[in-house]
Predict the structure of Hydrolase, alpha/beta fold family functionally coupled to Phosphoribulokinase.
Amino acid sequence: MFQTSFLLRNPHVQTLFATFFRKDKLKKVVEEAFTLPDGDFVECVWQNEKPKDHRPIVVLFHGLAGSVNSPYIIGLMNALEKQGFASVLMHFRGCGKKENLKPRAYHSGETGDAKVFIEHLQITYPNNPLHTVGFSIGGNMLLKLLAEWGSDTPLHSAVSVSAPLRLDICADTIEKGFARVYQNYLLTPLKATLLQKYKKFEMEKYIGRDEEEIKSLKTIRAFDDAYIAPIFGFNSSQDYYNKCSARQYLKDIKTKTLIIHAKDDPFMTEEIIPSEEELSDSVRLELSEHGGHVGFVAGTFREPVYWLDERILEFLGYKSKIK
């Protein structure tokens, strides 16, 4: 179980340290655009190169407004390579370098793109064991997808980190206190990406909001009401949250799954934490007192230890050698 020093226990220190002070880089990547059934695409990034042997493949899903440049993605990809894994990040639509071809983007419960990409990997690399790791909303999406697959899963194992298992509670929590800093940090790129779509599509026709209305949005919930709900056919943000929060689906998961969560996650409250009765026999919940949101930094300020990478590797079946 995760433990850290007294000086690193603050949830905001955990969250911000892992986001802004981790300086790892990817030495070499292979980028590809994966075409989706609706004619759009997602941008996928392989660490180093695509596998030419039977090594395990780990598929990564980033958090809200994340990308291959997110420190937690870079750190884990480097750690996986050291242990002999191939890894690939699937960007959600609109999170890569290129503009997408459709007015829609992605959300916490939209599993279709991930499903077809993983099934493509299963066909392309039939002898390579497949694993997945999802962070934050990528973790919520992953858990929902695992439940949809049930016993027909193509995956050997899955890890979900800091997932907002009750989206409504998270949307409310992030509007209060210091958490509003995180909300503004996330909302800025979301609005910018959406405003870019107005230059290419008749977005006002699709969602009933003009550009000025989008610019004036102040909360994640307001963004979800203005864009996510109408573009994906939900009645409202609350309807979206009710249908896409992964907590209600955990009992249906048949893939070996680890959920890593900190009680002090500043993006949400302890209300989102499921009981043991809500978990299937395939799901293990590891709940720590500290860790923040996608933080889990042990060691010291001068010599941090990124425990998350070590725990994920251990769960995948490989004892970490990371120093």
Notes: The chain has a mean pLDDT of 96. Residues 2 and 49 are 32 Å apart (CA to CA). The domain at 6-165+254-315 is CATH 3.40.50.1820 (Rossmann fold).
